[in-house]
Design goal:
It is built from 21 helices and 12 strands. By secondary structure, it is α/β, with parallel strands linked by helices. It is elongated. It binds adenosine-5'-triphosphate and magnesium ion.
Length: 590
């Protein structure tokens, strides 16, 4: 994990090295100052008549040392911030870029909320602790060692008081951190829940309102939020013990040193100046210990975050290009050859079982079947959104796994069942299909998809701004825009996954007619719930529980396929659908 994270420091290596260096310089200056102070007191003030010259010279040195210390401290702060912010930026980018390579299977593994937490809260954690490590990781131990050495040089007996204090304080801090750590580990899991609640709620706010579930959702959020709050209060209140324990130790040390020191001054075994320096070192040592403990808290807090970040960066896409990929899709023929498919390797049954289909280029294929009968799963294999578990899918005579993914997906346009538009104008959205499309091409595609009529009625026409997720267009309008966007790819295979479900039947028929006359060479695969959407197709596939129940023309299926006939009758006699064919009622009435 550390290796993965360290790799992302990249161009901020220099700053990462400079920071501890400046901090070290600051520590050195901090150690020198009390030495100089002792010299001023002992050799300048405490000599008969006083030595002004000595005081001035050493005083000047002291100012210089303080100035260098200040400069080093400032630079350390600056480079520390630069390095840690840069590190965080690289981590976010690395995650983001890797997420872009994720296949649908990878995306299924992480929740959206989880990915968002990883890219925000977790990165911020690592950023803060990296800054802390750069600045304090070197500074605190160095400062402690320097002060300790200096103290022993001045007076071993008094310095041993520090040693005892450091060991005692170290033990207490260790227990505090261990206890707090336990809570911090839980906090981040709770964060995921909180984010999941926010994300789900805000993105589905319309559904929440429609079902008057605001109160339920608010309670859910309040619960998640309370859990995070509780854990933080517990962890932080333990951490807060640090300060009083540390202050208690500092004052005990000062008392002890003053007491022992006073006796020693009386017996002339220590000078006043040295005693003053020792007191200054006391503060330095214990402060460093305190900082060190904070560094440990930060590190342990960010360990969990670091792991979660590394997981995303190291995730390898389950679908990659072949070593020597085919760049050209010859034609729009599709062959399913003994295809078996399941979403998760350890899943028990197959979602698709022994699928064999041979679709010729330019053919129009209808797919029909109940919800969950694996229609979407079937077509997702064509553009290689998922890979088959067994068997093969061939497009243009070549296994889809042999193609360059971009080349394949440019020629196989899918209008997904759960489709979405992005914030931007209609033109911008359409050009997702083809960056270079001219206005003329965009208009033609919209005409084919019967989207031109409503776009032209909009005040800004094709420059109308679509809100995020396409919230300012109707469901049917959105579907037609999505179809137009797919048409702009000029695909060899066009797949519409229930893409006209929200479009009225008359418009649906017009779109189908336009397809037949305007893009006759494109293979069209149309998934629908309404028989009327597919009855004119060259062939219709009836799916049932992941298997093909029948293939044929409308007439053939009416003749020989029970499911198809039942659905047809239920739809023509009004009402009913795949899951509850109205035909049952008809029978009951007989
Ligand atoms: N991403 C996924 N991970 C795991 N299982 C999935 C996933 N997507 C679908 N499934 C499962 O696969 C089966 C087939 O789903 P699929 O979406 O292909 O059905 P469908 O025929 O398109 O249904 P609908 O008409 O409702 O769109 C279902 O049992 C579903 O639970
Ligand atoms: Mg579906």
């Amino acid at each position: 994990m550390l290796k993965t994270l360290m790799k992302q420091i990249k161009e901020f290596k220099a700053a990462s090295i400079a920071t501890p260096f400046f901090m070290l310089l600051e520590v050195l200056m901090e150690t020198v100052v009390p030495f100089l102070m002792a010299s001023i007191i002992d050799d300048g003030v405490n000599v008969p008549g006083g030595d002004i010259r000595h005081i001035c010279i050493v005083g000047a040195w002291m100012i210089a040392a303080a100035a260098v210390g200040l400069f080093a401290g400032l630079m350390g702060g600056k480079y520390g911030a630069y390095a840690s912010a840069g590190f965080a930026k690289n981590l976010r980018q690395a995650m983001y870029y890797n997420i872009q390579t994720f296949s649908f299977a990878n995306i299924d593994k992480y929740s959206t909320a989880g990915l968002v937490t990883r890219m925000t809260t977790d990165v911020t954690n690592v950023q803060n602790s990296y800054m802390m490590i750069l600045r304090m990781g070197m500074r605190a131990p160095a400062s402690m060692i320097c002060a300790m050495v200096a103290a022993f040089l001045i007076n071993g007996r008094i310095a041993s008081i520090y040693l005892i204090a450091v060991v005692l304080l170290g033990c207490v801090l260790f227990f505090i951190i261990r206890k707090a750590n336990k809570y911090f580990n839980i906090v981040f899991e709770k964060y995921d829940d909180l984010n999941a609640s926010v994300q789900e709620n805000v993105s589905a706010i319309r559904v929440v309102k429609a079902y008057v579930r605001e109160e339920y959702e608010t309670n859910k959020f309040a619960n998640a939020s309370a859990k995070v709050y509780n854990m933080f209060v517990k962890a932080e209140s333990i951490i807060a013990c640090n300060m009083p324990v540390m202050m208690f130790t500092v004052y005990t040390c000062i008392l002890l040193i003053s007491w022992v020191g006073a006796h020693m001054i009386v017996s002339d075994s220590i000078t006043t100046g040295n005693l003053m320096s020792l007191l200054a070192y006391c503060m330095n040592i214990l402060m460093s210990l305190m900082m060190l403990s904070m560094v440990f808290v930060m590190i342990s807090m960010s360990m969990a975050s670091g792991r979660r970040i590394a997981e995303v960066i190291n995730e390898t896409a389950t679908i990659h290009n072949d070593d020597d990929p085919v760049m050209e899709v010859k034609d729009g023929s599709v062959v399913f050859d003994h295809v078996y498919f399941k979403y998760k390797e350890n899943a028990e049954g197959y979602v698709l079982k022994d699928i064999n289909i041979d679709i010729k280029s330019g053919e129009t294929i209808g797919i029909i079947g109940g919800t969950g009968s694996a229609k979407t799963s079937l077509v997702n294999l064509i553009s290689r959104l998922y890979d088959v578990t067994d068997g093969s899918v061939r497009v243009g005579g070549i296994d889809v796994r042999k193609y360059d993914m971009e080349a394949l997906r440019n020629k196989v346009a899918v209008v997904l069942q759960k489709n979405t538009l992005f914030s931007g104008t209609i033109y911008e959205n359409l050009r997702w299909g083809n960056k270079e499309a001219t206005d003329e091409m965009c208009r033609r595609a919209c005409k084919l998809a019967c989207a031109d009529e409503f776009i032209e009625r909009m005040p800004d026409g094709y420059n109308t701004y679509i809100e995020q997720g396409g919230s300012n267009v109707s469901g049917g309008q959105k579907q037609r825009l999505c179809i137009a966007r797919a048409l702009l790819k000029e695909p060899k295979i066009l797949i519409l996954d229930d893409s006209t479900s929200a479009v009225d039947t008359a418009t649906d028929a017009r779109i189908r007619k336009a397809f037949a006359t305007e893009i006759p060479d494109t293979t069209k695969i149309i998934i629908a719930q309404r028989i009327s959407s597919v009855e004119h197709a060259d062939r219709i596939i009836v799916m049932n529980e992941g298997q093909i129940n029948g293939i044929g023309t409308h007439e053939e299926l009416l003749e020989g396929n029970d499911i198809y006939r039942e659905v047809y009758e239920s739809q023509t006699s009004g009402g009913g659908d795949f899951d509850e064919p109205a035909v049952k009622e008809v029978k009951d009435n007989e």
